[in-house]
Amino acid sequence: MRRTLWLIGGILGALGVLIGISQGLANAGPSLSGPTQQVDGNGVAVFATLLKEPAESTAIRLTLDTYFVNLVRYDFEEVATLRDDTGKSYSVMSVERIGSGLKPHFRQAVLRFPRVAPEAKTIELVVKDVAGVKERVFRWRLAE
Of 28, 17, 51, 1, nearest to 136 (Cα)? Predict the structure, then answer.
């Protein structure tokens, strides 16, 4: 009986550490890294890739991936916003779904936003309220 309690306690402790690490990654500040970035949190990995697109729009491929959470309820139009360092925010203009969308644990689409202000030096994609994570931020430096 004691052994079982120790084993259960150890498993719960390990889960607590993993959840804490996951939360820490999700709440980490944005970085100015490469075209593809990842922010994990609460069992969901979110990937964002800045795509080289025509000048009339800004395109980002957004991927949600998990083993645990049903992702079907998340509308990309609702959870994603683009903002630039000049203080302007941009809503999603269109969503081009990639794949059938029938897999509840993997969703991917290309999000199209209006062209950002010409004076902007950086842009941030903000993904809100996915799997209980208030905000995930992806930042890119624009070509000068």
Answer: 28
Three-state SS at 133: strand
Query: 15: pLDDT confidence band, cut at 50, 70 and 90?
Result: very low
Looking at the domain that runs over 2-141, which CATH code has it been given? 2.60.40.1200
| Residue 106, CA atoms < 13 Å, CB-side half-sphere | 5
Question: Does 134 score more than 90 pLDDT?
Answer: yes
Residue type, 126: V
Which residue ranges make up each domain of the chain? 2-141
Assigned token pair, 66: 């998990």
Compute the distance between CA of residue 142 and CA of residue 131 in angstroms, rounded to an integer.
29
Q: In this structure, what DSSP letter does residue 35 have?
A: S
Residues forming beta bridges with residue 47, ordered by sequence position: 38, 63
Three-state SS sequence of 75-111: CHHHHEEEEECCCCEEECCEEEEECCCCCCCEEEEEE
